[in-house]
Amino acid sequence: MDCAEIRESFLRGAVPPNAALDAHLALCPHCRELFEHDAKLGRSLASAALAAPAEHDFFAQIEARVARETGLRAWLRSRPSKLRFLVLVLSALLAVAVGAGLNLRPDLALYPRARLVALLALYSLGVLFAFKKELFLSAPGRALADHTLLALGALGLPFLLAFAPATDAVRVPGLAGAFGCFSYGALLTLPSALLIWALDRDDRPSVRTVLLSAAALGLSANLLLELHCPNGNLGHVLLGHASLGVAWLLMWALTRRLSAVQGS
């Protein structure tokens, strides 16, 4: 399969996934862009080719596209995917470093070392995988289902781990400090959220971006809170730590909704 065949397939309405397509996408960066974010670019170009705009709309569309591709955000999202991935990973690492540096949990010396290392590794791998899925091409056809399962798993992971607190964790009665931890995690992951928005190549966040960004931000927040908070109370962990991924999911969904309203 070559570039012309792929474009003709878009015009016909669908590009069937097969080995020839995967082999071509591995070598052709231009065709890969057509499939990014659930093939949004490929579908939009096909729609434009099939339905040419009226003359009075033509120049308005050109002006809108030119305006979209100028400024700092246009420059940021035009960077290669590998660089954008590195920037997001570094922002998450910086948030964890700042969170630990500002207030490292006082019981760190007593915390079960194997459990701490396992949790940090698990959260870190989840963040890396979510950012990778967000910024790099996935196999056509199965992408949305794969992203949904990944995001739901990442969002649910902190809730599951909340039911297995460390044996030496402090258990404060009630929900003491839950709002403080929630605010701490949200504030420190906010720069990463802004970077995701700036680096995203879609004016309106795709479902893929909503799911994977929320998963990455939620896991990043729980990672830094694991190094910050010694309170192992179940209610505190559920509301102050684990709920951050869900909060970011709602925030991204709201951003997507507002973008749709502004674009209509």
Characterise this structure.
The protein has eleven helices and no strands. 75% of the residues lie in helices and 0% in strands. The longest helix is centred in the C-terminal third of the chain and has 30 residues, at 234-263. By secondary structure, it is mostly helical. Helix 6 runs antiparallel to helix 9. The mean pLDDT is 79. It has helices at 3-12, 19-27, 29-50, 55-68, 72-77, 81-102, 113-135, 143-162, 178-199, 207-226, 234-263. The protein has two domains: 3-52, no CATH class; 73-263.
Order of helices and strands: HHHHHHHHHHH
Low-confidence stretches: none
| Quaternary structure | single chain
Nearest-integer average pLDDT: 79
Extended strand count: 0
Give the CA-based shape: elongated
Instruction: Kindly provide the radius of gyration, computed on alpha-carbon positions and rounded to a whole number of angstroms.
Output: 21 Å
Tally of separate domains: 2
Q: What count of helical segments does DSSP give?
A: 11
Sketch the major β-sheet. Answer: none
Q: Roughly how much helix do the residues carry, as a percent range? A: over 70%
Distance between the termini: 36 Å
Q: Structural class, judged by helices and strands?
A: mainly alpha
In percent, how much strand structure appears in the residues? Answer: under 5%
